[in-house]
Amino acid sequence: MKLLVITQKVDVNDDILGFFHQWLEKLSKRFDFLNVICLQLGEYSLPQNVRVFSLGKEGGRSRIRGLFRFYRDIWQLRKNHEAVFVHMNPIYVVLGGILWKLWGKKIYLWHNHRYGNIITRVAIWLSCAVFYTSPFSFSAQFKKSKIMPVGIDTEKFKSQISNLKNKNSILYAGRFSPVKNVDVLIKATDLLDKKGINFILNIVGKPGDDEQENFQKIKAQARNLEIKGKIRFLGGREYRQLPALYNQNDIFVNLTQTGSFDKTTLEAMACQNIVLVSNQVFKEIFPKEWHEALMFKERDPDDLSKKLLYLMGLAENAKDSLGVRLREIVVKNHDLNNLVEKIIHELNQK
C-alpha cells in the first residue's frame, strides 16, 4: 500500500516534533511508499521509499503560497497513494477531504486535543476513522474514533546504565505556554527550598514566539532559585538527546491538565524515570497502588511539593523497582511498533 502523510513538521532534531521522524521510519518499513507533505521541513534522513514535500514555512512563505503548494502537491500525488493519514491538523482534511473523496482515497485523522471546533467536526465527518490516545480528547466521543498506543520508540527510550541519575534531580521538558503550568513547578520547588531540601530542577525547552512573555515570567519567578543553583534553564535539546537527558534525572514532572496526553511522560517512563503528573488520564496507566504517590492535584504547588518530597525519600531499590514497572507498562501498551501495527490494521478495514 502507498500512503500520503500530512504533518506539521519533519525534523529529526526538533525537541517537540522530532518523534514523528521515528514514526515515518517505522511506517516506511510496512508501506510500499510514503509521500509526506509537511508545513515545515528541517533535517531528515529517511529511507528511499519516502519522499518529503514542504509547504515552505521554514523559508518564510506566506499562507497563500503554502495553500497553493498544498493543492499543487495533492494534485500531483493523487495517483501515488491509496490512503491519506493527517497527523494533528484537521484543517488539512477540510481543505483536501472533498478532493480525496472524489479520488477514492481513504482518509484517517490523528487528533488528540481536549477541545475541538467546527473544523474538527467537519474533518472527522470526512474521515474514515479518527485516532486518539486520551479518553478525554474531543475526538473520543465519535463512533468512528479509535484509541491508539501513544507510540514510544522503546528501543531508543530506555535505561542507560552508563548514565547514573543525579540524586534529587527533577526534570521538566516541554513547552512554556500557560497551559503547561511551569509556574506551579517553580512554586513547588520554592516550598522545598524553604524546607531546606537539597534538589536541582532542570528545565528543558525552547520557548516559541508566542510563549516568550510567559517564559520571561517563569524566569523572573525562578530567579532566586536559579541564583542558588537549584534551578537550571538548559534551553532546547535535539530530540535524539532526550533519552540521555531522562537518564540523568531522578524524577520527571509533567503539569499538563487532564485532557491532553504529553508523550514526554511516557518517554520518561520508558527510560525508567519516576514520573509525577496531574493528568487524570494516568489513572488508567499507573499501577493502582501508585496513584496517590505519582499524581498531584492540578495547579496545586503544595501538593506537588509534598509528592516530590515523598518520591525523593524512597529507597533506591524501591525507585529502581518502580522504574522497571513503569517501563513495562510503556513497552506493553504504548510501543511504537504496536502503534504502527494498529494503524495498518485500521487502514486495511473496509
Brief summary:
38% of the residues lie in helices and 18% in strands.
- Structural class category: alpha/beta
Mean residue pLDDT = 96
CATH class value of the largest domain = Alpha Beta
Distance between the termini: 14 Å
* Computed CA radius of gyration, to the nearest angstrom: 21 Å
- How many helices? 13
Question: How many beta-strand segments?
Answer: 12
Classify the beta-strand content into a percent band: 15-25%
Number of domains: 2
CATH architecture of the largest domain: 3-Layer(aba) Sandwich
CATH topology of the largest domain: Rossmann fold
Strand sequence of the main sheet, in spatial order?
A: 3-2-1-4-5-6-7
Can you give keywords for this protein?
seven-stranded parallel beta sheet; 38% helix; 13 helices; Rossmann fold; alpha/beta; five-stranded parallel beta sheet; 350 residues; single chain
Can you describe this structure?
The protein is an alpha/beta fold and 350 residues long. The protein contains 13 helices and 12 strands. Helix 3 runs parallel beside helix 4, helix 5 crosses helix 11 and helix 9 crosses helix 12. The radius of gyration is 21 Å and the shape is globular. The mean pLDDT is 96. It comes from Candidatus Nealsonbacteria bacterium RIFCSPLOWO2_01_FULL_43_32.
Helices and strands in order, then pairings?
Layout: E1 2-10, H1 19-28, E2 33-41, E3 50-54, H2 63-76, E4 83-87, H3 90-102, E5 106-110, H4 118-126, E6 129-132, E7 145-147, E8 169-173, H5 182-194, E9 200-204, H6 212-221, H7 223-227, E10 231-235, H8 242-247, E11 251-254, H9 263-270, E12 274-277, H10 291-294, H11 301-312, H12 316-333, H13 336-347
Parallel strand pairs: 1-2, 1-4, 2-3, 4-5, 5-6, 6-7, 8-9, 8-11, 9-10, 11-12
Helix pairs in contact: 3-4, 5-11, 9-12
